Sequence to fold (193 residues):
Amino acid sequence: MNSPIVETVTDPAEAAAVAEVAATTFPLACPPHSKPEDIAAHIENLLSPQRFVDYIADPAKQVLVVRDGAGAVLGYALLVYGRPDNDDALAAVESADGGAEALRAGAVAEVSKMYVLPDHHASRNETRPAHALMRACIDAAHDHGAEYIWLGVNELNERAQKYYRKMGFAQIGTKTFDMNGVVEHDHVMGQRA
Ligand SMILES: CC(C)(COP(=O)(O)OP(=O)(O)OC[C@H]1O[C@@H](n2cnc3c(N)ncnc32)[C@H](O)[C@@H]1OP(=O)(O)O)[C@@H](O)C(=O)NCCC(=O)NCCS
Fold:
């Protein structure tokens, strides 16, 4: 199997392909109690092709995709640069090792989204596209000047938490997440970038 290729998306014409992967994979991150209508609304509001056009154009955001050797999108990530806009995430980063200095320097990045198609999770794809994607995210954040990188993950999403720990993240706090009006509980995880 060919090694996965990771690249930053700069062409808005790619937005539809990324949105398709986003719509397929978002439900995999939702807890069992999530209602299909709330999941659908979240996808429509935040993961539509137009939203990805906006993310690609936003200088404070970076969309990365991981592709197979033939160019098909296997997964994507969204980096968001700047201070966390969630108070609990901000407090968590502030209290983390290296976090306060990074905040003072304006050098913080969030891995806001990290999604890989189920047939290409490491258990089914020995080239481990999700690992290549996260390594590229950390490198991209570092190259962008970030000194600290953080993320939120649903408290019930043990698969993702385990993966994030393998990729060097540790829990630094908790926060809530509003999914179409339903309050979900997240772990905040972080590491120096
Ligand atoms: C999160 C994600 C990118 C991780 O990629 P991955 O290739 O699956 O990651 P890995 O297989 O290396 O790591 C996951 C670990 O969780 C384990 N795991 C799988 N299902 C699990 C479950 N239901 N509960 C607990 N652990 C689980 C895997 O066995 C693996 O551990 P191992 O390396 O000891 O075998 C990918 O699973 C994904 O896209 N998931 C759906 C979307 C999502 O949840 N995104 C994160 C949103 S915050």
